[in-house]
Specification:
- The chain has a domain at 52-160: Immunoglobulins (Immunoglobulin-like, Sandwich), CATH 2.60.40.
- The protein is mainly β.
- It contains 1 helix and 9 strands.
- A hairpin with a 5-residue loop joins strand 8 and strand 9 (159-160).
- 12% of the residues lie in helices and 35% in strands.
Length: 203
C-alpha cells in the first residue's frame, strides 16, 4: 500500500514538472533590436546609372536683359574618348560669350572639365536650360547624362523653378490693330439635308 502511494506521488510530481515546463516554454522571448536597413540591402544604387555626368550652375536667377555667367562641368568615372556635350538655350535666351558645344576626351583621372558661357534672357517667362553629354561606343549604344535648370525670368523678379504666375506682360489689342480676316469656314448643312440611316434587320 505504501509503495502504491509513492508511485502516485512520483507520478504527480512528474505531471507538475511537465505542466510548469510547458508554461515556461510558452513565454515569448524579448524582441531583438532591429538595425536600420542599409542602402545595399534596399537595392538603392550608390553610384549614378551613367558614368558620364554633366552639371549646370547659375549663381542666381537673372532678371530680364541681365547678362549672367552659366558654368557647366563634365566628368566621368571611366574613360570616355570622343565625347560630345552641348548646352541648349530656350527661345527666350541668347548666347553672349563662350561656346554652347564641346567635343573631346573625358578621362576619370583628370579634373572635371569646366566651361563658362555668358547668356542673357531677352524674354520674360518660364524657361529651362539643358546640358547634355554623350559618349557613343557603338552606333546604337552609349552613355549620356542630362542636367536641367528651370527658371522664371521677369522684369523686376526672377526665381529658380517655374512660377504659376505668368510674368510675361499681356498686350491688349485695340480695335484697328488687327485687320479682320474673312472666315474660310463653310456653314454646316441642316439636319434635314442628311439622308436617313439604312434600316437594320432584327434577327
Amino acid at each position: 500500500m505504501k509503495s502504491i502511494s509513492i508511485v502516485i506521488l512520483l507520478a504527480s510530481l512528474s505531471l507538475l514538472f511537465i505542466v510548469v515546463g510547458c508554461n515556461h516554454s510558452q513565454i515569448e522571448p524579448e524582441p531583438e533590436e532591429i538595425s536600420p536597413t542599409s542602402d545595399s540591402e534596399r537595392n538603392i544604387p550608390s553610384e549614378p546609372s551613367s558614368p558620364l555626368q554633366v552639371y549646370l550652375f547659375l549663381s542666381h536667377a537673372p532678371l530680364l536683359n541681365e547678362t549672367i555667367e552659366l558654368n557647366w562641368t563634365i566628368s566621368s568615372v571611366v574613360s570616355c574618348p570622343n565625347s560630345t556635350a552641348e548646352v541648349r538655350l530656350p527661345d527666350g535666351a541668347t548666347l553672349v560669350g563662350g561656346n554652347l558645344t564641346w567635343e573631346g576626351d573625358v578621362e576619370p583621372e583628370d579634373e572635371p572639365l569646366s566651361f563658362s558661357t555668358e547668356i542673357v534672357f531677352h524674354e520674360a517667362g518660364n524657361w529651362k536650360i539643358e546640358g547634355v553629354v554623350r559618349h557613343m561606343f557603338s552606333e546604337t549604344s552609349g552613355w549620356g547624362d542630362l542636367d536641367t535648370i528651370y527658371i522664371t525670368v521677369g522684369t523686376d523678379y526672377s526665381e529658380f523653378g517655374w512660377s504659376r504666375a505668368n510674368p510675361v506682360p499681356v498686350k491688349q489689342i485695340a480695335p484697328g490693330d488687327v485687320e479682320p480676316v474673312p472666315s474660310t469656314s463653310h456653314p454646316g448643312a441642316d439636319i434635314e439635308d442628311y439622308p436617313d440611316p439604312p434600316a437594320v434587320p432584327v434577327k
